[in-house]
Amino acid sequence: MALNQSGWRPSAPQQGEGVAATHTGNKALMLEEALIFEIGDEHTTGVDFAPGDVAGSRLGNLTRKSPIGLPGLSEPETVRHYTRLSRQNYAIDLGLFPLGSCTMKHNPRLNERMARLPGFADIHPLQPVDTVQGALGVINELAVWLIKLTGMHGVAMSPKAGAHGELCGILCIKAALEKRGEGHRKVVLVPESAHGTNPATAAFAGFTVEDIPATAEGRVDTEALEARLGPDVAAVMITNPNTCGLFERDLKRISDAVHAAGGYVYCDGANFNAIVGKVRPGDLGVDAMHINLHKTFSTPHGGGGPGSGPVVLSEALSPFGPLPFTERYADGHITLVEEESVDDRHPDSFGRMTAFHGQMGMFTRALTYILSHGADGLKQVAEDAVLNANYILRSLADTLDAPFAGSGPCMHEAIFSDAGLAAGFSTIDIAKALIDEGFHPMTMYFPLVVHGAMLVEPTETESKAGLDQFIGALRSVAERAKAGDASLKTAPHFAPRSRLDETLAARKPVLVWKEPAPVAEAAE
Amino acid sequence: MRYLPLTGHDRTDMLATIDAPHIDALFVDVPEEARLDGPIHGLPLHASEMAVERHMTRLARQNTVAGEVPFFLGAGAYRHHVPASVDHLIQRGEFLTAYTPYQPEIAQGTLQMLFEFQTQVARMLGTDVANASMYDGSTACWEAIGMARRITKRGKAILSGGLHPHYVSVAKTMAKYTGDQLETALPTLSADTDLDALIAAIDDDTSCVVVQYPDILGRIADLRPLADAAHAKKALLIAVVTEPVAMGAIVSPGEMDADIVVGEGQSIGVGLQFGGPYVGLFGCKDKYVRQMPGRLCGETKDADGRRGFVLTLSTREQHIRREKATSNICTNSGLCALAFSIHMTLLGEAGLRRLAGINHAAACRAADRLAKVPGVTLVNDSFFNEFTLDLGREARPIVRALADQGVLAGVSLGRLYPGADALANGLIVAVTETSSDDDVEALATALEAALA
Amino acid sequence: MPRYFTEDHEWIDVDGDVGTVGISDYAQQQLGDIVFVDVPAAGRRFAKGDEAATVESVKAASDVYCPVAGTVVEGNAALEDEPALVNSDPEGEGWFFKLTLADTGDLEDLMDETAYEAFVAKL
């Protein structure tokens, strides 16, 4: 025969025996990437400029002479650098992201396309208002939606994120109290299960924070709260649905009591996703509530912002809202109320919280999302979010301790605790093992009222099949933790990095890159 | 509905699994009288992707797009060309749809990027360290004033008249509630900044002096005497940079011994976006790092000894410190920081220096041309890519009239300082690499006609 | 030299009218790896129970209360570079500050070592 020996001869893959470390540190598709300071240099640029003179020096004798120290990369290197980095991230596009109280839902790409229309992306905030009627129209249209969805009276659109919105609401309350001559009300009551931003915000505005206890079933202790009300209480800050994933049944009663005692009700709207279209906070007596557009209304989290935190306000608080805001005339023309017209139009405003008009790029995305869903779709959002959470709660209640399972259905998130795990095993071990299973961990150790809390929020954008996979993974990990599987203590094993030394990072903070000291040449 | 994967069949199955007769059984804790029985009245129902796109496009068309007309607005937001790869990279789902990197093992991409961003920002501002971003320049400026109070344990801040009036407004709003005392002033329509007056005003109660560089009218002043004067009284110098491209052409505030330097990073990578989202830059001297607000990313090692990054010094933050936190900031501006960092990496030192040179040269040419328009005087001796013209009559109506002719002439001081008659004739004109000589000619011609 | 403890886990050694203050081994164990300690400067005066120092682990910040009234004569500068001393030697090299006591009567309601051990055993 003529034996043709050219070419590659495939054979069945063999089992490897002990994998050696690679030369590069890469593991096939898992690619290591150096810092730009290690791969770039000060002479490289990835941008071409038109030729032309760069003469002229009217820089007030402050012309830069020394280098700044900024490395550049060519365009191909830049694209590769950031693409490689991106692959070391988990993301909602990759899988279920069960972070309780963070509402990691699908981010529709239509939102992105609309925000990039030049008519929104390429306009300046100080253009004459006649040249930006469409942009003001977006702000106005979104404002109307938020008011109607919450049953409130007005909305402040400019806050830059949820915590900024909280501050806005608290400042409205402070301004309203001062207008009434009751600036002496100094106490803000905050449930112990609250987000950390609540007490931080109240303290910033000069209030004294007092904790309200929770009942054994995970809700605010209404009687304790009512007993504490009095002439020194400015406001109550409540999260509803609360951080234990439960609806505060008594909110209307609490609001009535707070109002009767001369205070205001601030509602943390971080969890609005569970109730949008099902109940309106305005009907429960809320005076102010921020809405995280990056939670309920699907604008992307972007690895930590930008967010957007409009605040809906009751009739009592609306006159105190910040500048600027839009006003639509009967003829359809929209104007901006800024410092100039504030005395005539909005004399009680507490002032400006940020330059310009707020997170326009988030408004276009949120409005796009809202219009896509419509009133019927948003109601379905809340129903599916709550259904998915209850499905997880009931499917895992036989494996994990669910401290409030007896308190009725949960809302958009299911809470579990580390009770029943083998000695020495805790929530963190389950969380890190979930990483190896291909999931982002749930929120850990929050709220503080549950020992070793695991807060799971699937959101409405998960399919039943996706939920079943997650339930299977969490069940498997929980069973290993109950059996004392020591390998959990060193998880994750398959992520780009194993557990990181946070103590080292905090003891000797290295916050910027520094050129390594040159290695001294060996003597002799 | 396209964003909801559950089918009717799934819902029925799942309700059966959890032993609920119908969906409203899950909402029993909502008081019955408050429960809505159907979609909220008076709001439209769901719509197709095409229908939504049509609606939004119609609204977008009602705006005058900066890139389509001669355009000269600045005053805290600048139009620069952003390379296409920036927008492509920030839309990678692993960046766009990631959460704050609290699980570092699966967030090294965001964390390494933040570490690089912090280093780029610190070097640009001339500070030892920088944080992982703030909401925007105006809120970063206020946070710096609060930080100076914590460091010096004094409550009086002196704000330069050259500080952006919106930044001043934000500080005034916040100071009402923290009890800080602010000394503020209006700028004057002249070539001189108020540095000497600021130096004279510093006393033993002063926590900080806040000065913008280049300032709201575009003027550039040497900050070293101000830093020395502040330090002599144990007060801090806070410098505010609203146009970071300028750092490619002039000495940075940190190099002039400013203690805290904050900035608006919008100009690099982010775009105009009608005012937001933007990205606040925040840098300071090493010794003040534990009083800094906002998130910080730091280098460390993993269990196998490999380099990695984590969010660190988080005991400063609200989720640990609660009412004792340095700030209530939580979400910041991560994706805009990424856009800034990518654009900065594409530019590099060479590109930033060249970009800054092009901007300054274009501004010099424009200033010379516009100063030839009868009745127009150039206010500045010094400027980078933005300067102020005295039109000899109220600028605001002229800006409106020129907008009607399709020329976006700049920002009138009347818009920024309503009621300040001494400033009403001022027009701030920004000229970047995106403004052509033809654009400048169009502005000059239109101005000449309007002033005739 | 007598050593006293508070229910908030501070200890104080008293030598004449000068006391040395730190946090107990039990407290150190509860906090985990200490990453930062903020000690008061010489000359600061505290009433009994005032917040005098801060101690931080990776995920928690805790205030240290002054067990007696007095004026600080020295903060432990070594902790600035080596906060881990609080973990390795909490009741020795990891001391926080020394102060002159305003009133030795403040010591009366503090616990001695035996009483503190019994107190901790019940936690």
From TrEMBL, chain A:
Keywords assigned: Oxidoreductase, Pyridoxal phosphate
Region described as Disordered: 1-21
Gene3D superfamilies on file: 6.20.440.10, Aspartate Aminotransferase, domain 1, Type I PLP-dependent aspartate aminotransferase-like (Major domain)
Reactions that this protein is recorded to catalyse: N(6)-[(R)-lipoyl]-L-lysyl-[glycine-cleavage complex H protein] + glycine + H(+) = N(6)-[(R)-S(8)-aminomethyldihydrolipoyl]-L-lysyl-[glycine-cleavage complex H protein] + CO2
The name this protein goes by in its record: glycine dehydrogenase (aminomethyl-transferring)
Entries under InterPro entries matching the protein: Aminotrans_V_dom, GDC-P_C, GDC_P, PyrdxlP-dep_Trfase, PyrdxlP-dep_Trfase_major, PyrdxlP-dep_Trfase_small
GO cellular component: cytosol; glycine cleavage complex
Polar residues: bias regions: 1-14
Class of this enzyme: oxidoreductase
Molecular function in Gene Ontology: glycine binding; glycine dehydrogenase (decarboxylating) activity; pyridoxal phosphate binding
EC number: 1.4.4.2
Function: The glycine cleavage system catalyzes the degradation of glycine. The P protein binds the alpha-amino group of glycine through its pyridoxal phosphate cofactor; CO(2) is released and the remaining methylamine moiety is then transferred to the lipoamide cofactor of the H protein.
A GO biological-process term: glycine decarboxylation via glycine cleavage system
Family annotation (Pfam families): Aminotran_5, GcvP2_C
UniProt domain Glycine dehydrogenase C-terminal: residue ranges: 383-482
Residues in Aminotransferase class V domain copies: 184-302
Domain of life, per lineage: Bacteria
TrEMBL record, chain B:
Keyword Cell division: no
EC nos: 1.4.4.2
Any one of the GO BP annotations: nucleoside metabolic process
Keywords: Oxidoreductase
Enzyme class, spelled out: oxidoreductase
Catalyses which reaction(s): N(6)-[(R)-lipoyl]-L-lysyl-[glycine-cleavage complex H protein] + glycine + H(+) = N(6)-[(R)-S(8)-aminomethyldihydrolipoyl]-L-lysyl-[glycine-cleavage complex H protein] + CO2
Short name of any one Pfam family annotated for the protein: GDC-P
Coiled-coil segments: none
GO MF assignments: glycine dehydrogenase (decarboxylating) activity
Subunit (UniProt): The glycine cleavage system is composed of four proteins: P, T, L and H. In this organism, the P 'protein' is a heterodimer of two subunits.
HAMAP family, alphabetized: GcvPA
Function: The glycine cleavage system catalyzes the degradation of glycine. The P protein binds the alpha-amino group of glycine through its pyridoxal phosphate cofactor; CO(2) is released and the remaining methylamine moiety is then transferred to the lipoamide cofactor of the H protein.
Family: Belongs to the GcvP family. N-terminal subunit subfamily.
PANTHER family per the UniProt record, alphabetical: GLYCINE CLEAVAGE SYSTEM P-PROTEIN, GLYCINE DEHYDROGENASE (DECARBOXYLATING)
Name this protein carries in UniProt: Probable glycine dehydrogenase (decarboxylating) subunit 1
Native organism: Sphingomonas jinjuensis
Gene, per the UniProt record: gcvPA
From TrEMBL, chain C:
Occurrences of domain Lipoyl-binding (ranges): 18-100
NCBIfam families attached to this UniProt entry: gcvH (TIGR00527), PRK01202.1 (NF002270)
Similarity comment text for this entry: Belongs to the GcvH family.
Taxonomy of the source species: Bacteria, Pseudomonadati, Pseudomonadota, Alphaproteobacteria, Sphingomonadales
Superkingdom: Bacteria
Keyword Hydrolase tagged: no
Annotated GO CC locations: cytosol; glycine cleavage complex
Subunit note: The glycine cleavage system is composed of four proteins: P, T, L and H.
Protein name in the entry: Glycine cleavage system H protein
Required cofactor names: (R)-lipoate
Residues where N6-lipoyllysine is found: K59
Cofactor notes: Binds 1 lipoyl cofactor covalently.
Keywords: Lipoyl
Main function: The glycine cleavage system catalyzes the degradation of glycine. The H protein shuttles the methylamine group of glycine from the P protein to the T protein.
Native source organism of the sequence: Sphingomonas jinjuensis
Gene Ontology BP, a term: protein lipoylation
Pfam family, one: GCV_H
